[in-house]
Amino acid sequence: MKQLLTHTLALLLVLALVASEASAQQFSKRKQYNSVGLTLNGMAYFGDITPKPSIPSFRPGATRPNVGLNITRRFAPRISGRASLSYGRITGDDAKAADQTDPEAKYRYNRNMNFRNDILELAATGIFDLIENRNNYIKRPDFVPYVFAGVGVIHHNPKGLDADGNIVALQPLKTEGQSSGYSLTQFVIPFGAGARYKLNKSFDIGIELGFRKTFTDYLDDVSTNYVTDRNQLQSDAAKYFGFDITRGVAGTYSTANQAGGQRGKSNEKDWYSTLGLSVNYILAPRVRNPKFR
């Protein structure tokens, strides 16, 4: 997946530079325009608390809504820039995903962890159209596939459901015995592909699949190992989520021998993705007529 990300970003950069250089002199400011859009997506997560800790692992039942607003500026026949603000939720639950018969995932069945995380994302992305438009917005193509990549920042706050049915913020608990809590603000790299269709002079509709490469392994509050002694955890809530939530099922390891054992996979960062629809309204540019003297 890292190679795919690297190759995708490199390809987008090369294509953008070539296209910009070739078309800069042929696309006047009179043909540039802005649009505003609304998106409605399904949001999914890939990390320690998915059926398997890898990108191909996907559980539709864990998908949650994501909504967003964006503004896009058309700069060249193939190049646009987009600023977006979105809000959505990711979830995971070992009780619904882990398989106690799988020797590679048995520890996850015992872990019995659950979480939800509401994510606010602000992103700036470059869009490269696979079909160019050298005309104004009125004569734009009816159907345009595209790819995109950029940079973003998120604010997140993982929470879990305790034994009494209460929703508890997990970061302050330091469930893996950390000396300090992980940051709730993180950078992400958004990239993906989509297509838009011209409804009429002023409206486009579209479909888009996007991935977010993150630089944290704590979207789900799970990353490394259990503490060696449950008394290292500073509160009852921390002990519950960090140690005592384990099933302790006969035939698998129990709380007595999980101390210091694997709780997550710290060598793999968490990801999330969005898939959904958008509606975009084109803000017709003002045409300035020359003044007569």
- CATH architecture, please? Beta Barrel
Helix content: 10-25%
**Structural class by helix and strand composition:** alpha+beta
Radius of gyration from CA coordinates:
23 Å
Q: Treating each run of at least 4 consecutive H or I residues as one helix, how many helices?
A: 5
Mean pLDDT over the full residue set = 85
Do you know the CATH topology?
A: Porin
Organism: Hymenobacter metallilatus
InterPro entries: DUF6089, OMP/PagP_B-barrel
Signal peptide: 1-24
Domain DUF6089: 27-224
Q: Which descriptors apply to this entry?
A:
single chain; 293 residues; alpha+beta; Porin; 5 helices; OMP/PagP_B-barrel
Secondary-structure blueprint:
Blueprint: H1 2-23, E1 34-46, E2 64-74, E3 79-93, H2 94-97, H3 106-111, E4 114-129, E5 143-155, E6 158-161, E7 167-169, E8 185-198, E9 203-214, H4 236-244, H5 255-258, E10 271-283
Antiparallel strand pairs: 1-2, 1-10, 2-3, 3-4, 4-5, 4-6, 5-8, 6-7, 8-9, 9-10
How would you portray this structure in words?
This protein has one domain (2-26, 37-283): Beta Barrel (Porin), CATH 2.40.160. The chain has helices at 2-23, 94-97, 106-111, 236-244, 255-258; strands at residues 34-46, 64-74, 79-93, 114-129, 143-155, 158-161, 167-169, 185-198, 203-214, 271-283. Helix content is 15%, strand content 39%. It is elongated, with a radius of gyration of 23 Å. It has 293 residues and is an alpha+beta fold. It contains five helices and ten strands, in the order αβββααββββββααβ.
Give a quick precis of the structure.
By secondary structure, this protein is an alpha+beta fold. It has helices at residues 2-23, 94-97, 106-111, 236-244, 255-258, and strands spanning 34-46, 64-74, 79-93, 114-129, 143-155, 158-161, 167-169, 185-198, 203-214, 271-283. Strands 1-2-3-4-5-8-9-10 form an 8-stranded antiparallel β-barrel.
